[in-house]
Write a structure and sequence with these properties.
about 20% helix; five-stranded parallel beta sheet; alpha/beta; 28 strands; seven-stranded mixed beta sheet; FAD/NAD(P)-binding domain; about 425 residues; globular
């Protein structure tokens, strides 16, 4: 187990990365690539790796390493590379504050409170799970109601089963994966209930985790009430009309565990302390094509910016953020962006929010509703046909400078339209 690689922190760093998950490690490596000599990763867990350490299922690395890995294997590859590049890792250390001069205040049990200076910082804090309080599910406050990620940690890292018969609310990827995991451990999964008319997980997880194990998925259905005093005894589930349950059509399911897989929230307390501009749709910082936030020298990447489907995309985005943070620290930053991207029809958001006409870019976006045959339009300068789009799966668009040669303006609208 790798905890930390440094006992005494330097007073000054070129780049400080907040978060030691897949985004943080990739950002640190990107900073080293672009010339930053002194790079520090700060992580509040006892070892770097982030959420990957509890994701023991395969499916990672197909894009980045061109082979299928488990979460810990993917993390180990980045950890080994991080250590070989002489990057400092301060684990079990909490970031209390970052001021506008990029002085980072740290607290740990072994070193106490310290302040280190950085020429550039990268925010890579990841995301946290949405809880029962966020959706205000009626019923008693009994035990046995927990998020799918916490259940995953209990089963995969601590060796505890949360119960014997489970209901899963929400069809996020962690919930789908836990439906399979619990079934393999002998727990009966009564079903997965999703309030939306479509699933919110990847298609491959719906097939591999639910259909292959005969676990039913109920769409446009939610948990209307939780029953039980000390421990959950059952739930009432009901179909919905406009997201409101229809009580007379509900039915009771006995269970001793309710797992919530109802979405992730970017962990942006530090971003708000810094008063960074926040996108109301992604709940993450607004970023440029270099992944720089609204404050000079502060970059962001990974799930803290927007929720990703695959860790491979997190690594790709974080390498970009780290490289540009390293360039900023060495006073070699690229020219500023000159084009704003505006989400149009059937597009919820675009990241980054601005691009430059003289560089290659990868733009990530999510659609609002599923479509089969569709076309993605970047203003009047470029269009691309898509076989299908799905809200649960990010759409990636490679933007080349040649697309923008004849464009004269400061904003481009992005639409995903059905093929007529």
């Amino acid at each position: 187990m790798i905890t930390e690689t440094v006992t005494h922190l330097k007073r000054d760093y070129d780049v400080v990365v907040v978060g030691g998950g897949p985004a943080g490690m990739a950002a640190a490596l990107g900073a080293k690539e672009s010339g930053a000599e002194k790079v520090l990763i700060v992580d509040r867990e006892k070892e770097a790796g982030g959420i990957l350490l509890q994701c023991i299922h395969p499916g990672f690395g197909l894009q980045h390493f061109k082979e299928e890995l488990t979460g810990p294997e993917y993390a180990q590859r980045f950890l080994e590379k991080t250590i070989s590049e002489d990057i400092d890792i301060a684990a079990d250390t909490y970031v209390l504050d970052i001021d506008r001069d990029r002085r980072v205040k740290l607290m740990s049990g072994t070193r106490g409170v310290q302040v280190v200076s950085a020429k550039a910082t990268v925010l890579a804090m990841g995301a946290r799970e949405r809880t029962r309080g966020a959706i205000r599910t009626p019923g008693t406050r009994c035990s046995g109601v927990l998020t799918a990620g916490l259940a995953q940690r209990f089963v995969n890292m601590l060796g505890f089963l949360p119960g014997n018969r489970a209901v899963i609310l929400g069809s996020g990827d962690i919930g789908l994966i836990m439906a399979r995991r619990l079934t393999l451990e002998g727990v009966e999964v009564a079903g997965v209930f999703e309030i939306m008319p479509h699933a919110n997980g990847l298609n491959r997880n719906i097939v591999q985790c639910l259909q292959d194990f005969d676990i039913p998925l109920y769409l446009s259905t939610t948990v209307a009430e939780i029953h039980g005093r000390d421990r959950i005894e059952g739930v009432t589930v009901a179909p919905v009309d406009g997201f409101k349950p229809i009580p007379e059509k509900g039915w009771y399911i006995p269970c001793d565990t309710l797992l919530l897989s109802i979405g992730l929230i970017p962990e942006n307390e530090l971003s708000r302390q810094l008063r960074l501009r926040i996108d109301p749709i992604t709940n993450g910082p607004v970023v440029s094509s270099t992944m720089e936030t609204s404050m000079d020298g502060v970059f962001a990447c990974g799930n803290v910016v927007h929720i990703h489907d695959l860790v491979d995309f997190v690594s790709q985005e974080a390498l970009l953020a780290g490289r540009n943070a390293g360039l900023y620290a060495t006073q070699n930053r690229p020219p500023a962006d000159n084009i704003r991207l505006i989400p149009g029809e059937n597009v919820a958001y675009c990241v980054p929010q601005t691009i430059s006409s003289d560089r290659d870019h990868t733009v990530y976006m999510r659609v609002r509703k599923p479509l089969k045959q569709s076309v993605l339009k970047l203003g009047d300068v470029y269009e691309k046909k898509l076989r299908y789009v799905f809200p649960a799966e990010m759409v990636n668009l490679k933007v080349k400078p040649r697309f923008l040669q004849n464009f004269h303006g400061d904003a481009l609208k992005v639409d995903v339209l059905p093929v007529e």
